[in-house]
Every structure is written in structure tokens, then in C-alpha cells.
Specification:
Three copies of one chain form a homotrimer. Chain A is built from four helices and eight strands; from the N terminus they run ββαββαααββββ. Chain A is of the alpha+beta class and 138 residues long. The longest helix of chain A has 12 residues. Chains A and C meet through strand 3, helix 3, helix 4 and strand 8 of A and strand 4, helix 2 and strand 5 of C.
């Protein structure tokens, strides 16, 4: 059994972290899938999907680490192609990755208690994003 | 066909890297699944799953890289929320990711010869961990 | 329904980034799977799979970031085990990860318009690589 859902979110700008857990849990409930896998995917090369404990401190710490490791202010060859000044966004997205796959057992997404599935907006402007959730199971 | 297994491991402390390959291979054998996917997932926001050549040198190199990129000694806003001093653990976990998905073909997990599936304990204390292995296939 | 494909690529050397999207699309078309998941996996501990906008600038920016974060020139304990001087390759591969899972809906791989699935050769020599694509769906 396969169940697909797409939902839209509007991000407010660079490094906003959006908690998707509730929407994914609702998708699992609607699907009637009891056991299987949930794949959460962002179609696009300047956003990322991962998990994090969704609390205000880490919503600052994760962007701070990204800025330390992949600074905005350095040269990116990407800018010579498109002049859109988001080379760092692309590099960050490729390093974190665009998807995550989570087991579903007895109707429950197997996340830890303090672990949320998040989308990280890495582009430099607010954007409308479509998240794809694909469930495979029975 | 879906086959679920959870197994517990006890970690000895920060940056211990535990080879899970043998346990996953046994799970595949028990499941009778010949072709499909194996998803290995850590429920929890201070551990990570990836692959590595499991040899003593890299068990030092990987922690050294994590300390260089996400140092313990710097300020993390996470500490103001919980005072548990593991902000770096959370950031590292989000960057590596909590899961990995591996093809199974003719009963074999498609790992390279020198490639092992590992759990990385990123929290600052030894912990009891539950690893979830979810197989989907036929 | 499960559909497996392996294809070989020859890489030209360190940090070459190879666009796999067309080959994966053809695999999806051949499989007749309309809805499901595509898992792309590299068996081997010195290569990685991710997505990126495949344009000449980022093909320089991603290797530059890897060299900045995981330099070739520093000491790696891995070298004391094998004397093969690719410790940085292994660490980079574990951080990016060996696989990616992408939803398939109505026969379409759900990539963004400017998002390609890529293999990154992280080893220090040109190599022959086998990429595994595993489709699960209906």
C-alpha cells in the first residue's frame, strides 16, 4: 500500500526551521498504514529535511553552526552562474540532505519523545515550499 | 511484507561508534525478505546513523572532525533551555541524520566490503539506546 | 513490487560529481512502478549520494567546502591502519551519507526542477563504481 501527500508551507526567511511532525503524524493516521516507512522529501536544492529537538535554543544553534561552517560572506562560484547570491544555501542543503525515512510501527511514527522532523529553509528569501510525504506499508 | 525489529545497545560515552551491521544482517535473514529496503533509525535527537569503514583509525578521525566542526567548548543557546550541556551533541546529530536506508537484493544487504552501518553516540553520557530496523520487501 | 538495478560509472578523480538523475528516471520508467520509493545507494565507504543543482559553479563550491571542513593535509589516524592517505575521503563520506530516498508519484521522481541526484567521488583516485537503485512500490 502506498499513500502520497503533498503539503505547502510558507517560510519566513533564511534558516527558519519548521516542525513538520504533526502534519506527518496526521498523514500516517489518514493513510491507515499500520506498519511501513514514511519518507519526507523536499523537492528543491535549497532546503533540507532532518530531525532535531524543537526548542528555541537549537533553533539558534543550528543556524549558527551552518554560518560558521558555510559562511554567507565568502566567494561561491555558483554566483557567477546565476548571480542569486545563495551559493551557501545550496552547499548547506547538499550536506544535510533533502529527505529522511522513518519507520512506522503499529500506526506510530518511531520518533523519540524530543525528536521532531523539520524542514530547514536555507534559501535567502521567504519561500512557498511543497513537502512530499510518501508512505509505503500495510 | 513488513518486518520490524528493535534492539537495545548500551553505549560507553560520547562519540562511541557502534557497528550494527551484524545485527541488521541477522534481522534480514530472520525476516525471509529477499528483496526490498532496510531502514535503520535512531529514535532520539542526540545520536546518528551512518556508514563507515569500521577500523580503529576512523573511530578516532570521525570524532576529531566532529569536535573540530562543532566544538563542545563554545556557547550553545540550547544550554539556556535545559542546562544539560549537550548543545553540540544535538547539532552534530541533526547534521549527520538519524537514519539510513539500504537496498536488500537476493537476501543480501548491499553494503560494500569495507562499509559498516554504525550508530554514533553523540550525547555526553553513556546511554541505553533502542535502534529500530524496519524492512519492507518480498 | 520491487525492482532492482545496478549500474557502473567510471569516475575521473577526487571530488568529481556525477549526475545520476537520468539513469534513475530510466530505471523508474522501465520498472513500471507508478507510486513508491526510489533508494539510491553507493556500496562503499569513500563515496556519497546527495542532491544538488547540477551547474558548473556548485561543482566547484561543494569540493571547496569539503576541503575547508575536512582538509586533506591534516593527520588522520586512518593512515596508520592502511597507509592509503584517504582518511579525509572516509570522514567526508560518513558525514554526507551513502544513500538517498526519493518518492515516486504517478511515475515521476519527485525532484525539484533544479535538483539532481548525484554521486560524489570522494576517494583520491579515479574508480569504477557500482550504484544500486532499489524501487519499492506498485
Amino acid at each position: 500500500m502506498i499513500y502520497s501527500e503533498r503539503f505547502s508551507i510558507s517560510t519566513e526567511g533564511e534558516c527558519q526551521i519548521v516542525d513538520l511532525s504533526e502534519k506527518i503524524r496526521k498523514t500516517v493516521a489518514k493513510s491507515k498504514i499500520r506498519d511501513g516507512l514514511a519518507c519526507v522529501f523536499i523537492p528543491g536544492a535549497t532546503g533540507a529535511i532532518t530531525t532535531v529537538e524543537y526548542e528555541p535554543g537549537l533553533l539558534k544553534d543550528l543556524p549558527a553552526a551552518l554560518e560558521r561552517l558555510f559562511p554567507k560572506g565568502i566567494e561561491y562560484a555558483h554566483h557567477q552562474t546565476w548571480h542569486d547570491w545563495n551559493g551557501h544555501s545550496h552547499v548547506r542543503a547538499s550536506m544535510i540532505g533533502p529527505s529522511i525515512t522513518i519507520p512506522i510501527i503499529k500506526g506510530d511514527l518511531q520518533l523519540g519523545t524530543w525528536q521532531q522532523v523539520v524542514f530547514i529553509e536555507l534559501d535567502i528569501h521567504p519561500r512557498r515550499r511543497e513537502i512530499v510525504v510518501q508512505l509505503v506499508g500495510e
